[in-house]
Amino acid sequence: MSNVLVLKSSILGDYSQSNALIDHLIASWETKTSSVIERDLAANPLPVLDGEIAGGLRGGDNLTARQKETLALSDQLIEEVKASDTLVIAAPMYNFTIPTQLKNWFDLIARAGVTFSYTETGPVGLLADKKVIVVTTRGGIHKDGATDLMVPYLKTILGFVGLTDVEFVYGEALAMGDEFATKAIADAKSELEQLTA
């Protein structure tokens, strides 16, 4: 895990439980990492995918200034993934799915011919041999239930670009009282320590 890419997506800043768990993890890795790239996608939001940007991500001639800028940013984001051995993604649940800020990141790195390719047998991801740890925090309890829409989505989109070695760490029931929240955070920290021992 010598090179680590950290993605934070909570809109809660210093009050974010997912950010706190990620910070705890990275602090415990201090002697195990060569480099850590951290992107706070809420503090420094990425462009929202629209028709102009989608067209620009295909490349080509006659791109607008905005398209060129976003294409260069997309290239940078993809290079950060390629340079990393481990990705750590903070994915709090907002209204049963991932934050918009994290979705924007996926929209900029999912590029045909760059991070995935279409073949006769279906799409093949081009980003491989990386470990992904997703820390997901929720106010209620959703794990393995019908309301946990984000884990299947994350497995799908990560797998689509070739990131199939994915572990999920849950911090649930955070809005269900101090006793539940305290235990959930302690359990999540313990699981993170076991994953990275």
How does the major sheet shape up?
5 strands, parallel
Cα distance spanning the termini = 11 Å
Give the % helix: 25-40%
Principal-axes shape call: globular
Give the amount of beta strand, in percent.
15-25%
Mean pLDDT: 93
Run of helices and strands: EHEHHEHEEEHEH
What does the radius of gyration come to? 17 Å
In terms of structural class, how would the helical and strand content be classed? Answer: alpha/beta
Low-confidence stretches: none
- Count, helices: 6
Task: Give me the count of strands.
Answer: 7
* Spatial strand sequence of the major β-sheet: 2-1-3-6-7
Could you explain how this protein is built, in words?
With 197 residues, the protein is α/β, with parallel strands linked by helices. It has helices at residues 17-28, 51-56, 65-82, 100-109, 150-160, 178-195, and strands at residues 3-8, 35-40, 86-90, 116-119, 122-125, 131-137, 165-171. The strands form two sheets. The chain has a five-stranded parallel β-sheet, sandwiched between helices. A two-stranded antiparallel ribbon has the order 4-5. α1 (17-28) runs parallel beside α6. The protein is globular. The relative contact order is 0.17.
Question: Summary?
Answer:
By secondary structure, this protein is α/β, with parallel strands linked by helices.
Entry keywords:
7 strands; two-stranded antiparallel sheet; 197 residues
Secondary-structure blueprint:
Layout lengths: L2 E6 L8 H12 L6 E6 L10 H6 L8 H18 L3 E5 L9 H10 L6 E4 L2 E4 L5 E7 L12 H11 L4 E7 L6 H18 L2
Helix pairs in contact: 1-6
